[in-house]
Amino acid sequence: MEKVLYKSTRDSSKLVTASQAILKGLSDDGGLFVPTTLPKLDKSIDELSKMDYKGIAYEVMKLFLSDFTEDELKKCIENAYDEKFDTREIVPITEADGAYYLELYHGSTIAFKDMALSILPHLMTTAANKNNISNEIVILTATSGDTGKAALAGFADVPGTKIIVFYPKGGVSFIQERQMVTQKGDNTMVVGIKGNFDDAQTGVKKIFGDREFAEKLSENGYQFSSANSINIGRLVPQVVYYVYAYAKLLADNKIAEGEKINVVVPTGNFGNILAAYFAKNMGIPIAKLICASNENKVLFDFFETGVYDRNREFMLTNSPSMDILISSNLERLIYLIAGEDSDKNASLMKSLVTEGRYEISKDMKDKLNSFTGGFATQEETCAKIKDMYEKNGYVLDTHTAVASKVYDDYVNKTGDRTKTVIASTASPFKFTTSVMEAIEGKKSDEPDFELVDRLSSISGVKVPRAIDEIRTAPTRHDHVCEKDKMADAVRSFLGI
Fold it and tell me: How far apart are CA 171 and CA 227, in angstroms?
């Protein structure tokens, strides 16, 4: 098997192994790691259709993580996809209203981030051993709501690691915040910042790029890594569930072998839909990749015009995990459509920092013909939740509802009836207030946990364990800082 190495989107000259890329998270030049080649599946889709989720995970991940041994990788997979998930399937697929909903939220924190963040700590500690790392690894992460809790749950009390999560205070749901601030683990720290997600993400990237800080860390026996989707250890496990979705639909006779499908993904930081693009390039017959945005529609505008422009009002919406104007993972796609020209990519990314915008060439835009975009307003999102519940008895969370509404619009506009998988990225219980207000058509001042119980009653779905656990859990993290004081919070936690 050809060994896949990794290079930076901003400097193609330096190559690292998969394990080294996972440990570093972000390249020293600020670029993101991409594989030197996108591997092709070496098992037929018919063979994959006879495997369970863990079997398919191994077949996909072995191609990207080629310096992990079979035993190492299988052990990571076994440790990740276990009883933390509330269904043996790991990822059920529910058919509703003419589409297939890929339910990615059956893990311990009831959001799709569990799919990658259940395995990342195991990949990272294995990578540290492979590379004879003696430093303690400090995971530094910004979250728009879901990554934070999933990363905290994954890394809590993992030997040789510490984790620090920054989130926008007032910019996440009640349940999301409760999940984070009640997190156990002596190696965990959660900090609310006075700003939005982009501020948190920019602050984290600035800390990563501070050479002096890195030297100080090393002197004290630490080194940074990331659990954000900029880490290829996050991205690779996400590719798996699109391969699984196709194989499962084939196994269940919902599609014929070789039949193309469309995929719809509610998208903020672009990692989840990029994973679907990787799956397509590995050989999964995906026709259209439909990128669904909320009112922070910077990605929709990009696919329409070829101009990425974050110079606009930042909207706080009822789908907060998508309240993002700087979609970090898009850089990987830009690099690929630029012909893997790292200088060209670096120039565009510099323009994004200095001017807040960049424009791609016509040749680059022509390479995006697999993608199309759409967006949904908060009102349209609520209407979709209500309509789906009343007609099908199926409850969507706000982010999945954005994707569902965008899919409706796409079909109405194009007439394309290709069978379609919609990534269902979170449990409706994670956004209970917004979901119940949508279903009942009125604002509610009921306590969130009372709404949780009513949602369970009307949907017939048991309250997830993740929600019950935080009802009475004490607050363990109450630190809040200004957005320009994030580095000070890190120094304080590490005692340096």
Answer: 20
